[in-house]
Amino acid sequence: MAALRNIVSSSAFAAVRRAPSAVSIGRRGYAEAADKIKLSLVLPHQTLFASQDVVQVNISAVTGDMGILANHVPTIEPLRPGVLEVISATSESKKWFVSGGFANVHPNNSLTINAVEAAPLEDFSAEVVRANLADAQKVLSGNGSEAEKAEARVEADVYEALQHALSHK
Q1: 3-state SS class at 1
Q2: Under DSSP, is residue 86 helix (H, G, I), strand (E, B) or coil?
Q3: How far is CA 12 from CA 1, 9, 15, 16, 95, in A?
């Protein structure tokens, strides 16, 4: 700090240390039952939700599962393969399986989710998922190239997450 004082004039340093008077500190409140968040769920080839009012969105973030309500603190969360649950104003719940992407919570009660791929959870067959997981695990334990094994690792991770989601509907 002393070195900084030698570089910057004392009046300039004092101005930097003073708290700016024009900055206001906002308070964050809690979501009320009537509060909504505008959800946009976008895939590269399709828009599933376009600024639709919902009560809550539950996501599978890399940092852990989280629920997003109105007045949520702004954040950007990378998504891992898992379930995305949308709860409407009528308390109807719709579950989607998302392969990955990003969730952006904006300060104006809006949430944008950009996903690589998403499909309704009920569209998946547990038997097909189990068979595809077994195929991916065979490639992983076989003599394939590093590229084949890396691709199989991604497939296995997604199928394991999908299998978990289907067993906990």
Answers
A1: coil
A2: strand
A3: 14, 5, 5, 6, 56
Contact 37, 57 (CB under 8 A): yes
Q: What is the DSSP letter of 165?
A: H
Say if residues 162 and 127 touch (Cβ distance below 8 Å): no
Q: Which of 167, 152, 164 is nearest to 82 (CA)?
A: 164
Helix (H) or strand (E) holding 3: helix 2-7
Q: What are phi and psi of 86, to 5 degrees?
A: -115, 125
CA 154 vs. chain centroid, Å, equals 18
Q: Write down the pTM of the prediction.
A: 0.73
pLDDT 10s digits, 3-14? 444 444 444 444
- Tell me: pLDDT of 70 over 50: yes
Q: How far apart are CA 168 and CA 95, in angstroms?
A: 11
At 47 the three-state DSSP class reads strand
pLDDT in tens, 123-137: 999 999 999 999 999
Q: Which two tokens stand for residue 134?
A: 């077994």
